[in-house]
Design brief:
Elements (H helix, E strand, L loop, with lengths): L1 E5 L6 H12 L3 E3 H10 L3 H10 L7 H12 L8 E4 L5 H13 L6 E6 L2 H9 L1 E3 L6 E3 L26 H15 L1 H8 L3 E5 L4 H16 L5
Parallel strand pairs: 1-3, 1-4, 2-3, 4-7
Antiparallel strand pairs: 5-6
Helix pairs in contact: 1-9, 2-3, 4-5
This protein binds BIS(adenosine)-5'-pentaphosphate (AP5), magnesium ion (MG) and zinc ion (ZN).
The site of magnesium ion has 4 residues, from α1.
């Protein structure tokens, strides 16, 4: 199963990705997480990515495409993969199609999580993340059991540096201009599934699971 998760910042892509990856036993590949990990490891890639991420801008395509293609060539992607946050514009989508086609593959489904704009801002500004294990919380809707401490590994939670209001507004703008056109792109290919992301985390997951199980029956790759 080769799946792309599409949706604006804060839609719940990362939250759902963890559950989908576990349920279907496929690797979760988040370009945002790869950049953040590089930043923590203080690599050149991390430093470059930070310049763009803090401004809410996209990291240049040639850098991002190469990282994804390297990752997709790893053994664990043979059985499929779940891409979260990639592709994010038409050139990246075209590059991904070309990469898959050259290997006789194609995407199984593109899950488009739809959420109202006001809810997105609340979700992002209330988000807290664990810098060690990557778990995601929300101060109001899914708080940790102990204030500011990760339930899973006990580390102190942080706020992402691009979750400041100015960066969030810019990210939403970039989404509208660059990423939203992918909805048409994948609708034309007849692989887009719209999911109502305004429901609870568990309800959204049930809807995604249903959509993917339906699709898997037709998955001949
Ligand atoms: P990235 O890390 O991909 O961030 P994003 O797309 O802005 O999306 P988010 O991670 O903010 O939101 P999400 O949809 O994962 O929501 P989450 O599940 O956390 O990218 C960051 C940056 O990296 C980009 O700006 C860019 O600079 C760079 N980058 C990344 N990919 C790139 C690419 N392909 N090309 C170029 N540059 C790239 O949920 C949000 C909150 O809501 C959480 O608190 C959660 O608990 C809560 N929540 C989730 N679901 C629900 C629900 N159903 N009900 C209530 N609350 C919910
Ligand atoms: Mg995310
Ligand atoms: Zn943790």
């Amino acid at each position: 199963m080769r799946v792309v998760l599409l949706g604006p910042p804060g839609a719940g892509k990362g939250t759902q990705a963890l559950k989908i990856a576990k349920e279907f036993d496929i690797p979760h590949i988040s370009t945002g997480d790869i950049f953040r990990q590089n930043l923590r490891d203080n690599t050149e890639l991390g430093k470059l990515a930070k310049e763009y991420m803090d401004k809410g801008l996209l990291v240049p395509d040639e850098v991002t495409n190469r990282i994804v293609e390297d990752r997709l060539q790893k053994e664990d992607c043979q059985k499929g993969f779940l891409l979260d946050g990639y592709p994010r514009n038409i050139p990246q989508a075209e590059e991904l199609d070309k990469f898959l086609e050259e290997r006789g593959h194609s995407l199984t489904a593109v899950i488009n999580i739809q959420v109202e704009r006001e809810a997105l801002i609340d979700r992002i500004t209330g988000r807290r993340v664990c810098p060690v294990c990557g778990a995601t919380y929300h101060i109001k809707t899914s708080p940790p059991k102990v204030d500011n401490v990760c339930d899973k590994c006990g580390s102190e939670l942080i706020q992402r540096s691009d979750d400041k209001l100015e960066s969030v507004v810019k990210r939403l703008e970039v989404y509208e201009k660059e990423t939203k056109p992918l909805i048409d792109y994948y609708t034309r290919k007849d692989i887009l599934v719209n999911i109502d992301g305004n429901k609870s985390i568990d309800e959204v997951f049930e809807d995604i699971k249903k959509a993917l199980l339906g699709d898997r029956r037709n998955d001949i790759h």
